[in-house]
Hints:
Blueprint: H1 3-10, E1 15-23, E2 29-36, E3 42-46, E4 54-57, E5 62-65, E6 67-72, H2 90-101, H3 106-122, E7 125-134, H4 141-152, E8 158-165, H5 173-185, E9 189-192, H6 200-214, E10 218-222, H7 233-242, E11 249-253, H8 262-275, E12 278-281, H9 283-289, H10 305-310, E13 315-317, H11 334-344, H12 352-358, H13 361-366, E14 382-385, H14 390-395, E15 401-405, E16 408-413
Helix pairs in contact: 3-4, 5-6, 6-7, 7-8, 11-12
Amino acid sequence: MDIERLKRMLAGRPYLLCGGRLLTADAVPSRADILVSSDGKIERIGLDLEGAVERIELSGALVSAAFVDCHQHLDKTGVLKFAPNPSGTLQGARDAFAGYARFAPADDIILRATRTMARCLSRGTTAIRTHINVDKDAGFRGIEAMAALRQQWSDRMVLQLVAFLIPHPNQDLEWLEDNIDSAVAMADAVGGTPAVSEDPNRYLDILFASAARHGRPLDLHMDEHLDASRHLFEAVFDRVEKYNMQGRTVLSHSSVLSAVPRKAFERIREHMLELDIGVVTLPAANLYLQGRDQDVLPPRGLTRVADLVRGKVPLATASDNIQDPFVPTGSGDMLEVGRWTLLAGHLHADDMAQVYAMITTVPARLMGLQNYGLREGARADLVITDCEDVIDLISRGPDRMLVMSRGQPVSERPGSSWHKADENITTRMGETR
């Protein structure tokens, strides 16, 4: 039975997922059934649920909430062949895309973004936050195109847009100040990159003031460099307090934290905790772009991943760029990103549950997703795999996977059998008792 037949069978109907092992908040699998309502929500979770509905036997398959990618750049995805970055540096990537963005038509942006979103969905991601350039080069083409995709994909994926206001060298801040409100009105969050601004304090005020006016959260590209003498954390913290953005501010990258002395880092970390600020690490970009000027012992370029995790700062990990001048590789597989994070972030083998949280519950919290998770009332966005447990899921990944979005099957990776199952799950759809 193919995936299209499954979609037709379950469309608009309640059903029971029976005999699965659920990965809940403690990442310890527990056997339970899930009743999915006709509108694609988790209606009930419990043992031996009954009802006059279709029963889908999972036979011990591992059930996870779907993955959350809280930092992408869908306006840039897939442009590598058209915007090369010979230097491999951050500024080289910025310059390459700026040249491409001046002429990129909306239909090209939509085509490339759609391809990447489809790949992400097929690998278990049902929520993405994407930063979209708004500047003199890109204008509003990118954010207008992504706003259209946000609506078109609303039945399959939660897509949040960040108005990413870019202060390129020699571009006046007046343009950003004049245009930011129009961009933010189309977006779900406000973003920017203060470390490259010629006047970071004024730039930060423009971003924070607009976020406050529109009631939007902030997601900044924070100090994506390794120069400990010029970080901007205190300037950001001052504005979080001034504009009452506690609990609504995310600092992505934060690479410089790995360069500052430990005592300085610990002060910054405590301030993050006081202000309820989250952090997103982007291992692919920072491994690729940072440290190219070092002749010996080039740095990894990530933030202090292990220290932030153990210090209880909410830390997510995400794809960042996919196949563009900033990151020439990537498939949209959050399990792969999790493995990079564990390895490059110097986490331990017994940190698999923390890595799992970094691609599920933590990014869902940072994005403010209210209807997420394996709980009653949430959207039935699920990943069903043949893995044994969270260690198996993160360390090797599934051979077999079924992705559900709003209770409907959207992708299947075929395999020989489910965990402890002798038959293909798709041959058992429709069995009743």
